[in-house]
Structures are given as structure tokens and as C-alpha cells.
Amino acid sequence: MKVLMNETDPNQTEAGSQVNSEANNAGPRSVIDVEQVSFAYDGKKEVLRDVSMKIRERQVTAFIGPSGCGKTTLLRCFNRMNDLIPTAALTKGRIRILESDIYAREVDPIELRKCVGMVFQKYNPFPKSIYENVAYGLRIAGVQKKSVLDETVESSLRHAGLWEEVKDRLDSSGLGLSGGQQQRLCIARTIAVKPEIILMDEPCSALDPISTTRIEELITQLKKDFTIVIVTHSMQQATRVSDRTAFFYLGNLIEMDDTTKIFTSPAERQTEDYISGKFG
Amino acid sequence: MPASTSEKPVSVSRFQEKGFRFLGLTFQDVIRYFFGGNASLAIVALLLICVFLIREAWLFFPTHRHDLAIFRQTGVEYVDLMLQEGIAHKEAYTLLNQAYLAELNEPSQSVAAILLAHQQVALEVSKANQRTVDDWKKADDAGKVALRTRWVEGAEKALDQNETWNVEVARFEWTGDLRQKMRQAVLEEGPGGDEKSPFIAELEERKAQIFAETSERLKPFNAIKLAFRNAGRPLDALTDELAKIAKENRELASTFSSAPERKEALLEGAAMETDPVIKARKVAEAEAIVMVAPDYASLTRPFYDSVPKHDAVNTALRSDLAGILATFPEPGTLQTELGRKNLRLAHKSTEQLLGKLKLAAADVKAWRHDAKVGFGAAVTSFFFGKRWITNSSWQDFYGVLPLFSGSLIIALIAMVVAVPFSIASAIYVNQLASFKEQSFVKPTIEFIGAIPSVVLGFFGIMVLGTTLRDVSQLEWLSWVPGFPMQERLTMLNAGLLLAFMAIPTIFTLAEDAINNVPHAFTESSFALGATKLQTVFRVILPTALSGIIAAILLGFGRIIGETMVVLLVAGNKIQIPDFNAGLGVIAQPAHTMTGIIAQELGEVERGSLHWRALFMVGMVLFVISLIINYIAQWVVKRFHKV
Ligand SMILES: Nc1ncnc2c1ncn2[C@@H]1O[C@H](COP(=O)(O)OP(=O)(O)OP(=O)(O)O)[C@@H](O)[C@H]1O
Ligand SMILES: [Mg+2]
After folding, report:
1. Is residue B198 part of a domain?
2. Which ligand has its closest atom nearest to the C-alpha of A44?
3. Can you give the residue range of the structural domain that contains B532?
4. Which of A97, A195, A242, B290 could make a disulfide contact with A117, Cβ separation 3.0–4.6 Å?
5. Domains of chain B: total
6. What's the CA-to-centroid distance between B532 and ligand 1, angstroms?
7. Are residues B334 and B439 in the same domain?
8. What ipTM, to 2 d.p.?
9. Which tens digits make up the pLDDT trace of A127-186?
10. Which DSSP state fits B517?
């Protein structure tokens, strides 16, 4: 993350040391710091209001909440995918990833995205071969050496638990796989560029229960190497895979805590109502 | 469920249909048949067009075969072989002659240009004083003196104006001195322009002198050139002699083949006649028409007899030409670019000529008047015939190759220009432009498609042709193939205009194809850290490729069928482009399949061979378009499965 280093920001060192000391106190280091963030798509109507949170390293953090509460929006702020919408912007606050302010002017979103990968709700491999799908991230980064590519493709596919199923047909189209395989291919494609953080927006919502289970197992595996943020509508999924859970409601972060705590004794009334199915 | 008036339903079902029926049809059915009818109407129209085209064209081949049979039996074909030898010889000679003329004129060119400028200035002056000049011409001697003073005043006034000096200055520089001298010369020449001024006289003398010197210097070249020309004399003489016989033979043949028709017409006339005398005369006339086939064997006797003579002439010509070719000057020794270029071409074309003559000698020997003309010959001579010659006093030829090659080269030029341009614009508009630019650029490009092609053709004649030719004369552009161009109306000109017409088609379809690439692909590419350009070239373009190929094909189909522009701008010269010029062929004029139909169909006799030939050309065009469309659809289907 050298590229994100923001040496001109005078607050940097101070804030950084703060985080570090806190991280030292409270177990794992925090990699994403969201500080009083508000966000609007059109510059006026805020769909996120004053959200602050810390996301810890090598843990799975789940975002839950009723539809339209802003989970996807916040997730896409982390890799600046919202930049693709011309008028969308933070109206307030700051997001720091690995201690760099990612909305600082000097930051190149291209470099940021190499560090913060994303897996989408609907699996979307490119209409290329399985091999080329996984190698894509490396190729655009300028890697040409066949040995490096081969090695990374294999290790990424192994990591994503797909290698045994596809090793004999790496040259056939990625679109010929089953839905669950395609989603794992997308995960392999994401981890091939060796990001620090992986964002997943409802990665299982288009899949059958068996494929869902496989992906959930995979997430538990990946936790060893990556920090994962996952948006989900399934309470069970959140309890199964995540260490910490954040509950959003109408653009506000209502509560964030250890998953077991949220689902057994939430501090807020709204959280309790939501997880017990009173609304949503 | 037919209208049930006789048997009343037992109970009104709760699922009974609502609304009413008309002739047993529900409203839904009516709508369905209405739209279905429209669609089938389009298909029926297409079928009708096919049937019409085929019906008019299919008789071409039998008729053509008959025509070719006469061509052979009468011996016209035999003489035509020799005629072609002569034409090839003359073509090579023309190139050599052009090289010579370029050399000859070059040294005196600058003086000639000054003289020309002087003429232009004098003309301007006399125009400005038209009245005085006219009066002066009519006046008597006394009047002339007074009028002359008036003219001098007017002429001086005109000479003071800058417009008068607005002449083409290409070969010399307007120095103040030169201008002063020319001014004086104009005044000295008087209102009639016939009193020689010493300055002009001196220039003319110099020009004549330079010219004489140059011709002296070029004497050897001139001798070579003349020897080259004269070598063809015996062949020409022989051809002329035999051509007369061939023409007579053909006359006989056509009298014979039209005999039944004439006889029938006379008898018909006789039947309607009331006056017995005239009737009897007409019947007698009809009886007199003999219907005996000419004896082609004896008619073609002179041709067979001439074979040895031709052989001698041909051999002599070949050895003469080979000898002369060896004495051609080195192109490097010539002084002008044009001369060198033409000399090189002449060299090449003489070498080709020697090969052609050898083949022709064999062909002439092998020729038989009674060799059968098969149906295949009628077909090949259309599809692979190198000559399209109509209304000729010698023989008509219907070979589609010159037209086809013209159409193809023009379309290729257009594609080479239009494809990169349209696809780059499509990428730009769809991927890189801001919303504002998009909403300006897109409709603008699409608007090009609304320009009537006749307007574009007009523009091509009036503006583009002249501009291209002028630009092509620029010294620093001489490396471009085909430059400098002699003509205004060329394949390049037509190709550029057609490119302009193809751009909206290719652009719109390619932009659609790019737009249809799912957003998910773009998004995941960005999420992997790709830049905009990487995303465009590695994800969007490959995904849209089938659509883009289809766009290119349909653009091609659009321009191969375009008529107005090529008819107006391509130069309408019916010949296979000379590929000796390399890529420079684009500077040559050509005719096209569409152009020939538009130009000739109105003038030919319905049902004649020529008329049917034009329909065959139409068929060829139709089939080409059909194939292109079919391939385009196939490409889209094939690649869309992924
Ligand atoms: N591209 C956009 N332009 C304008 N408004 C948007 C855009 N995308 C989302 N919104 C709005 O922002 C709010 C939050 O949307 P978001 O997609 O973040 O919700 P979510 O929590 O992910 O919902 P879901 O669970 O249904 O995916 C919604 O009110 C939505 O209408
Ligand atoms: Mg969402």
C-alpha cells in the first residue's frame, strides 16, 4: 500500500498512531476506519449519515439491515466504485484504509482497487477462458511471464477451491461453469491480484443452498489471508461466517459488535426487532 | 369456438370470454393477423423482386451464347485476337510517348508559364476595357488614334489593380522587375494585342530555342519511340485488311439470323394489303428472302490463309520490340519525375506485351471457326470477361470484371477509411465522452446518414475532386501512392465519399454493440484495478467483437450498393484498373456495377442482350448483398453463444 501513503497530510501520523495504539489494546489491528461518513448519490439526499466504524484485520465483518439502508453504498465506498457515478460523493467524513485517506486527492483509485478487491452479487466472469479470467488482473498489471501467470492461476484456483474441478479445462469459457463455480471463479479472479481486503456484496444470493455452503466454507478459509467485508440478507449466514456484524437502518449505523453479541443480546431495540424478524 | 347461435350453451361459464367476435375472430386475432400480414407483405415483396430479377436475367446466357457463336463463326473473334495485340502495343507506346513528352516540355516550362501568365494578364486588361477595344476594332484610322489613348488610360488603370495579376504562379516568381516588363509589354501590344512587344518576342524566341535544343538532345529517345511505334505498322495493316472481311461476314450472319423475322413482317404486311399489285410485290419480296445459312467455312477461308502471315508479323514484332526494349534509356537519366515514372511503366508494360504477343500467336494458330461455343463459355465470358464494351461497331462484350473490380476497390477504399474512424468514434462516444459531448456527437454523426447521396456526389465533383487533385500536387505529399493525380474524378474520390456514407451505419451499429456489453463486465474489470482504456480494449471490445464485425459487414453492404455517388464521382471509365501502379490504382477512374445499371438501363432496348446483361449485373449485386447480410447474421449468432 505504498502508493496510498499520504505524506502531505499532517494528520496522518497522529491519527495513525492513535489507531495503532487502539488496535494494540483491542486485539486485531483495524484496516478500515470509517470516520463520520455521510454519502449522497446526487449531492443532496444523504443515503448514509454519520457512519463511523472500524473493520479489523483478518476477520469477517458482516453488514446487515433492511433493503435500501445503504449497505452496498458503504461497501462500494471502500474501493471507490461509486466514482463511476458522476455526482456521487462523500458529503462528510473520511475513510482510511491501512491508514491512508482513500479520498485524498493524490489517491489513484486504480491502485486502491488492486488492494481492495470485490465480489459481486451476480457472478460475472468475463466471456473469456477460465485461465484468462483468473489471469486478467495480472495481465492488466503488466505481468507477462508465463510461469508467473501459470503459478498464480493455479494457486488462486486452489485457494478458491475450484482447481480440482476445472484443471482439465482451463481453456474453456468461464461462462460454461455452474453458477456456484462461476462465483468461485470470480473469487479466484479477485484473490489472484493479492488484495488485502475483499468486499463481497451478497455473494450467495443467486446461488443454491449447496453452492452457498461451499462459498461460506471458502470465506472461513480465506479469512486467514484476507480481511473480508460481506453484505448479506441472511441472518444465518452472518452468524455462520462473520466475526463481527454491523446493523444498518435508514442510512445509519445502528450497532456494531461481535456477531455472537449482536444475535444474542443486542444493545439496541431496532437491532433486536430486525433480527427477530419484526420488520425488514 | 365457432359462433354458437343454434345450440345455446347449457350454462354461462364463469370463464366465458369477454368481448365480441367478428367472423369468428377475436380482437386479439385481428391484431395478430394485421401485424403478421405486414411482415409477410415484406417477404412477398422480396420474393417478387427475386422472381423479377431472375426472370429478366436468366435469358442472358443463351442469348449471349448465340452472340458468341456468331462472333466465332464469322471470324470476328479471329481478327479480335490481332486487334488486342495492337491495342496492347499501343498502350505500351502511349506510356513511352508520355515519358518522352514530359522530358521534352520540361526545360521550356518556366518560360512557357511566363508567357501564359502574360496572356492571362492581357486578357484581364482587355476584358476591363471591352468597350474601348470593340470600338477601336470598328473605328477608322483617325478614330483609332483617339481610341488608343483612351485604351492606354484604361489599361493602365486595370494594370494598377491587383486582381488583374491574379494568375497562376507555379513555375516562376513574380519579381517586381518581371511585373514591370510585363506591364510594358501589355501596353505595347495595343488594344488589338497584335503589335509584338520586344520582351514577349524575346521570350517566345527563347522558348523555341530551348525547345529546339531539347529535341536535339532527345533525338535518340525520339528515335527509339518512333521505332517502337512503327514496329506495329505491319500488324495494323494486316488487322485492317482482315477486319474488313470479318465485318462483311458478320453482316451476312446478321442478315441471315434476322431473315425469318423480316419475311414474317413482309407476309403480315401483305395479308393486310388491299391493293393486289402491292400485295403481290410484297409476297414476291418475301419469297425472295433466302434462308440459307452462310457458308462459314468458305467465308473464314481468308483467315486461315492469313495465319502464316500473322505468324511472321508477330515474330518480327516481338524481336523488334525486344531489341528496342534493350535500347530504352535508363530511367535515372531522365530529368523529370513524370518522365521517369512513365518510362518505368513503359518498360514493365513492354515486357508484359512480349508475353502477351507470344500467347496471342499461339491463340491465332489454334483458332477454329467451328469450335463449339458451350454454355460454360457464355457464363465465364460474363463473370471473368475483362471487357465491357457496348454499342460498338466492332463487337459488344459483356464481361463484368471491370465493373466488379471498380466497385470492389472503391468499397475497399471506403472501408479502410470508414472502419477505424467509425469504431474509434463509437468507442469514444460510448465510453470516453462526457454526457454533453455524447449528446452532441452522436446525433451529428447519425445526421450524416440523412444527407442525400446526390448532394454528396455533387460535393465530390465540385469540391473534393479539385481539392484532392490540388493537394496531390504538393511536393511533400508525393510519397502517397497515386499522387500526384491527373484526374479529378477517381476511385479515391468516390471511396472517400462512400466512407462518409458508411460511417453512420458502422458507427451506429458498433455503438449499439458496445453499449450491449453487460455493465457487470465493465464493473468487475474496474474492481480488479483496470484503467478505462484497459477495460475498453480487453473486455468491452472483445465482448462486442461480433457486433462490430457485423456492423462492418453491413457498412460494406451499404456502400457496395450505393449508386449516385459512384456514378457522379468515380470517373466512369470502363476498364480494369492498372495494378502496375501498385497502391496508386486508387488515383485511377473506374466504373461500377451500380453505376453502369443507372447509366445504361434507360437507353437500351428492352429484351436485348445488353438489357439482359444489365439485369445480370443487378443479380450479381443482389447476390453479393445477400451473402454479406447472411454472413453478418451468422457472425452475430455464432459469437453470441460464447
Ligand atoms: N446509483 C444510485 N443512484 C441514486 N441512488 C441510489 C443509487 N444506488 C442506490 N441508491 C439509493 O441509495 C440508497 C441505499 O442503497 P443501497 O444499494 O446502498 O442499499 P442496500 O442496503 O444495499 O439495499 P439492498 O439490500 O436492497 O441491496 C437507496 O435508497 C437507493 O435507492
Ligand atoms: Mg445492496
Report:
1. yes
2. 1
3. 405-640
4. A195
5. 3
6. 24
7. no
8. 0.87
9. 999 999 999 999 999 999 999 999 999 999 998 889 999 999 999 999 999 999 999 999
10. S
